[in-house]
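haha ok so turns out i had the wrong file open the whole time. this is the CORRECT one, sorry everyone. sequence first:
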Amino acid sequence: EARFTLRWESARTAREALARLSMLRGMSAMEAEALMNLPAREHQIVLYGPDMAPFAKSDEKSLMDKTFLKLKKNKQKISPSRVEIKRSQDGKKISGIVFYFPMKSEAGEPVVAPDEKGVDFECRTDEVSIRQNFEPQKMISKAGPDLR
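then structure:
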C-alpha cells in the first residue's frame, strides 16, 4: 500500500504557507510576499509521497492522458494542460508530480466556477489509481475564495 499527498498548490492558502516557509528558510518578508502575490495562471495540483515507485514507468504524456478534473455541477472533465515530473537531486527517483490545469475556459470563464460544489481529481496508471474530491466552497482563506 502506497500513501500519497495531493495538494492544490495554486490555492491561496498553499501559496501563503509556501511564503511563510520561504521566510523561515531565510527569504525576506518582502520577497516572500511578492512570491505569494504572483498571480496564478494555472491550477496546480501536486502529488507526492514517500514512495513514488508506482509512477516509475509513467511519463508526462501518459499522465496527461490518464488524469482529469471532473466538475460535479456539470460533469465536465478537464484535462491537464501539462504535467511535470519532479525528480530527486540525483535524478533517479520521482519526488513529485505537478499537474497543471487551465484556470479559464476558451471563452474566458473560470473553469472552476465560484458556485462549484465539488471537483474530483482522478489519475490512473497501470500501477495505481488516485481519486480525491476537493470542495472549492470550503477552500477559503482570509482573503476570500482560495482558487482565485
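Helices lie at 12-24, 29-36, 60-65.
again sry for the mixup
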